[in-house]
């Protein structure tokens, strides 16, 4: 079921936005709907990423709890990261 969104803007903003939409062969309503759909899609992506990130954190804690986690000292981690960065930069 579709729902209605109402909001207020000053007359000049409405007039200019309407002119822009019409110059693109759309109505102002179409343009506003498209923007709302784009915002919704961005939020879907954010939520999907949040779910993925939560899953990764939970997997890391599961690994820690099962004593399968491997820890490295700071200098080793720093060295490995520098190697990875160099490898990535070398691809460009």
Summarize this structure as a short list of keywords or feature phrases.
RelB/DinJ, 92 residues, Ribbon_hlx_hlx, mainly alpha, Type II toxin-antitoxin system RelB/DinJ family antitoxin, Arc_rbn_hlx_hlx
The low-pLDDT segments are none
**Count of helical stretches:** 3
Basic shape: elongated
Q: How many β-strands, per DSSP?
A: 0
In sequence order, what are the helices and strands, one letter per element?
A: HHH
What fraction of residues sit in β-strands?
Answer: under 5%
Overall mean pLDDT score? 95
Distance between the termini: 48 Å
User: What class, by secondary structure content?
Assistant: mainly alpha
Determine Rg (CA atoms, Å).
24 Å
Question: What proportion of the residues is helical, as a percent range?
Answer: over 70%
Main sheet summary: none
Pfam family, one: RelB
Protein name: Type II toxin-antitoxin system RelB/DinJ family antitoxin
Structure, explained:
The protein has 92 residues and is an all-alpha fold. 75% of the residues lie in helices and 0% in strands. The protein has 3 helices and no strands. The chain has helices at 11-23, 28-65, 74-91. The chain is elongated. The model has no long low-confidence stretch (mean pLDDT 95).
Brief rundown of the structure:
The protein has 3 helices and no strands.
List the helices and strands and how they pair.
Layout: H1 11-23, H2 28-65, H3 74-91
């Amino acid at each position: 079921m579709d729902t209605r969104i109402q909001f207020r803007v000053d007359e000049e903003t409405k007039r200019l936005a309407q002119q822009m939409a019409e110059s693109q062969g759309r109505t102002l309503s179409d343009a506003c709907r498209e923007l709302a759909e784009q915002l919704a899609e961005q939020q879907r992506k954010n939520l999907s990423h949040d779910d993925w990130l939560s899953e990764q954190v939970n997997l890391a804690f599961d690994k820690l709890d099962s004593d399968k986690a491997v820890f490295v000292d700071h200098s080793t981690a720093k060295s490995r990261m520098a190697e990875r960065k160099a490898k990535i930069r070398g691809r460009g």
